[in-house]
Amino acid sequence: MVASGARTAAVVGGGVIGGGWAARFALMGWKVRIHDTDKDAPSRIEAVMARARAAMPGLWDVALPEEGEVSFHDDLTEAVTGAEWIQESVPERLDLKREIYAEIQAACTEGAIIGSSTSGFRPSELAEGAARPGQIIVAHPFDPVYLLPLVEVVTGPGTGDARIERIRTTLRDIGSHPLFLRREIDAHVADRLLEAVWREALWLVSDGVAETAEIDDAIRYGFGLRWAQMGLFESYRIANGEAGMRQALSQSGVALKGPWSKLTDVPEMTEELVETIAGQSDAQSGRRPVEELAQIRDANLVAVLRGLKARDWGAGRLLNATDRRIGGAPQGLDAMSLTAPLPTGARAVPLDWSDHNGHMTEHRYLQAFGDATDRFLALVGCDAEYIACGQSFFTAETHVRHLAEVRAGGQITIDTQLLLAEGRRARIFHRMWESSRLVATAEHMLVHVDLQSRRAAAPPSDLQERLGRVAKAHAHLPAPEGAGAAVGRPIAHKGAEEAK
Ligand SMILES: NC(=O)c1ccc[n+]([C@@H]2O[C@H](COP(=O)([O-])OP(=O)(O)OC[C@H]3O[C@@H](n4cnc5c(N)ncnc54)[C@H](O)[C@@H]3O)[C@@H](O)[C@H]2O)c1
Q1: How far is the CA of 13 from the centre of ligand 1 (A)?
Q2: What is the spatial distance between Cα 382 and Cα 392, in angstroms, rounded to a whole number?
């Protein structure tokens, strides 16, 4: 099913990068039309989509919009007509890209944005001879496009402020981070940096200083970890302590003059060097197929990104901002129907919540249910502000039942029934669903406490009133199956046989 009112993107060239764009747009709820001249493109894109479905939605702690429809079109005109954003991702050949823009511009509206994934060309080169040069911009992403937020944007003099604003908001809408370049240069900013490291790496292999695996270790055990969270300048600032950046620069000035870098020089790609590098790379990684390596990479990236998210730092900060944008303002209790359990959670299962059995691991159920408890308590007035004033609920007892498997990328929702609110105690029952399938339940006994004395204390009257209101309404609901059950006691529930 396609979400009504979905926006439309067209992807021209559905390889590694086009497939990644298609996944990002579709998983953010856009309809995606793909044009590729290769008949195998649909099956390749389906493989990328499957990887993206497992990895991307779980980056956020809210449910993403319903996945948009992805369609394939032999006819380029059909693919781009009416699309709001057209992303060109054909091979890196200027003549081919220009030919394609001519075809696109003959079919698309003037308002559409034509982004090029080009790693190296400037917008002025791409748009030379185009009917409407200002419409063509560089929107350079990074593989995997559905996980890495950076998109380098290079515009031209004809782009115009209104279009620039639309580029900014559209890329933010799909969870990306647009980095606008101040002026055009070959290979933009990030590929200039990567090219420098790549050249040095080729020299190190060519000179027999290090093998491919050792160069990769030099990055991933050290500065690569640092770069993921603070980049280059902020890391060096710390490295130089309180002496500051000026001092750091005067010191590195000396080092820069030394023969540390062969940057301007490129090793000749002789057959021998190609063989050396390819052989070392086979020895390093050849035992795993590329698809397996891509899945490992995705799982690692999700763990890093979610780690940064918990720290609200760097790319993780962007994920939190996107959570707030997609989640919107939380609905208050007064606006909710009390004739059914209250909705207290909706999200995808993150890739790093999955265990060796290929399904959501035990402690993540507790995390998801714990978040639902927080949401329930916030609804009745025990929110962050209330807690900051010195009172809260502590969980005294928990019983989780696992009724069916959920895998990474699975969309789960949680609802909550209040079984009892009496004095200092509240007993709640969560149900976790994947679509209409009940996958787990959790029952918690909560005790209201004074945070100063750390002892149980009766909630104030307004909190008691709200809890009482919910309890009274929920008393009319059937008692949930499994409520009050002890561990090991058989439960008359058809899902029980599927328990993990
Ligand atoms: N691979 C990367 O890491 C990376 C990263 C960022 C940007 N880019 C840029 O993205 C662009 C695409 O790179 P890629 O790695 O996805 O290449 P790719 O070879 O994987 O994909 C290119 C796709 O374009 C299709 N194609 C070729 N001619 C076409 C035509 N006339 N009409 C429609 N489709 C056509 C091919 O069938 C193929 O599916 C390049 O400009 C590249 O510089 C690549």
Answers
A1: 6
A2: 7
